[in-house]
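Chapter review: from sequence to fold.
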Amino acid sequence: MSSLGELVRQRGPFASVYLDASHDTEDAAKAMELRWRGVREELARQGADDATLDAMQQAVLTPVPGKSGRALVAAQGALLLDRVLPRPPAVETARWSDRPHLLPLATWTEPAVAHVVVTVDRAGADLHGYDGRGERAGEVHDQVRGEQHPLHKVPGGGWSHRRLQKAVEETTKRNAALVAAEVDRLVTDLDARLLVLGGEVQARADVREELSPRCRDVLIEVEGATLAEGGDDAAFDHAVQSLVAQYQFDLDNDVVEEFTAEAGRPDGRAVQGLAPVVEALREAKVAALLVSDPALGDRTVFSGDDPAQLALREKDLRGLGVEHVGEQRADEALGTAAAATGAQVVVTDSAGLREGVGALLRY
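The C-alpha cell string follows.
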C-alpha cells in the first residue's frame, strides 16, 4: 500500500474497479467485452466521466492470458493503477467516489515480498528479481554466462585425465563465483527477503558455497528447475509462488501476533475501534492497519484534501484548520490514509478487532 502514496494524492473523483479478467476460454474476449459494458454502465450511472472510462476500457480489453483478476483505478481521464490479480475477486466492484477504493488490494494482489529467483547450471545462471511492490513491472531480469569449456568430466585415468578433471573443477568454481557475485548484488539492491535457488544439484552447491552470509540467511533451494530445454518451468514457478505466498502469510501473521501481544499491555502499541484508529492514522502513527469487518464501508468518516486528514466528526477537522471537509466511506478513507502514510495493511479474520479495525502503532 505504501507504493500508492502518490496515487492517493491525485485529484479525484476516482473510478475503482475489481473484476474477473480471465482469458482462458474461446469466448473470453467477448465475455470480457460484455462484463466491461456492464461495469462501464454502472460507473456512468454513478457519475463517472467518459474520458476516465475510456482510459480504463483500453486497459481492460487488453487480455491477460489465463485465469486472473484485474484491479484498476482511474481519475481525470488517466489510468492510475492497473494490476493483474492472481485470481478473480470473489465480488466484482465498480465504484465512483472521492477516494480510491484500495483495501481489496491487500486481499487480492500477489504477495509483495522482495525476492530473487535464480536457476543455475555449471555455465551460469538466469536471475529474476522482484522489487516487492507486488508488480511484475518491477521485475529485474539478468543473465550470467561464464566460461563454457571445459565443463564436463569424462571417464578415464592418467595424468592428462586428472589435469582435465582439475580444469573442469576450476572452470565451474569460477563460474559459480561469477553467479554468486551477481546474486549478492541483486539481493542487496532489492533488499530481498527471500532467495530461491534452483537448477543442477552440483551447480547449486557450488554457488551456495560462494554466496555471502546475507544471501545464505534468506536462501531456499527448490528441486526440479533446469536451464535445459524441456524443463518443467510451470512446476518451478508454482513452487516459487507458494514460497513467496507463505512468506507473506507468515509476515502478516507476525503482525497479527504482535498486535495481539501489544493490545494486552496497558501501554502497548496497539489500538482498536474506529475512533482511535482514525486518530492514529491522522497522526501518521500507524505501522500496520488491521481490518477484519467487511461492513467497515457501511460506516463513514470525515476527511480533508490530504487523505491523511481524518476524523469521526466534521468539527474535529474544522478545529484543526482543515477547510475542505467531506464525508467518506470508511473502507475508502482508511485505505487511502494508510497508503498516504506508508502503513502496511493486513486483512485478517483472526484478531477479534473491536468494530472490525485495529492498528499497530509505530511508537
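Two observations follow directly from the output. The chain has eleven helices and 16 strands. Residues 290 and 346 are 5 Å apart (CA to CA).
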